[in-house]
Fold this sequence. Notes:
Elements: H1 3-13, E1 17-21, H2 27-39, E2 55-59, H3 70-73, E3 75-79, E4 86-90, H4 91-97, H5 101-110, H6 117-120, E5 124-126, H7 134-137, E6 140-143, H8 159-164
Parallel strand pairs: 1-2, 1-6, 2-5
Antiparallel strand pairs: 3-4
Helix pairs in contact: 2-5
Amino acid sequence: MSILRRAQQWSTFSTIWHIYDAKWQDPYLSAEKIKLYLMGIHKPIYHPMNYCGDHVIVINSKDIALRGDEWRKRVYFHHTTYIGGASWTLAWELHNKNPTLIVTKAVYRALKGNLQRRHTMQRLHVFPDENVPEEMLQNVSNQIKQLRPVPVRLDQIPKEEVEQFPKLLAYPEDYILK
């Protein structure tokens, strides 16, 4: 077997660690993308009953963005298995309690139909900020592209770039702003 084929075979069967930045991303759309890497669907050897998925590290889960007014209207159900133990928690309340839970629940929901989703979820590592243990960061070899770019705040744009931006309207010299 040639060296090229050997490397190709090794990369196909190896477990890779990916990192995904969830800042300003919709957790439910991101979950569909993360699911592909957790289950190993992106690999040519994929089979639903094979252990061919990869590890995914999700950072900045405290900075996720839900669409519209989902922070106020989306509810999460939990039951303690005791009589009267049903509870519904609003998304913003759940996010204040644990900023990693919404992303975790979104990925778990995206894995619906996967017979091994409890085992697959063990390869998902969610962190509320960028503080990831060094042992995990040493394993990372790929970054999953974000669904949409993170906007830059206006106060963080350099002054030179603002001055070079083309002006749509030139006010006269004697114009007074009120």
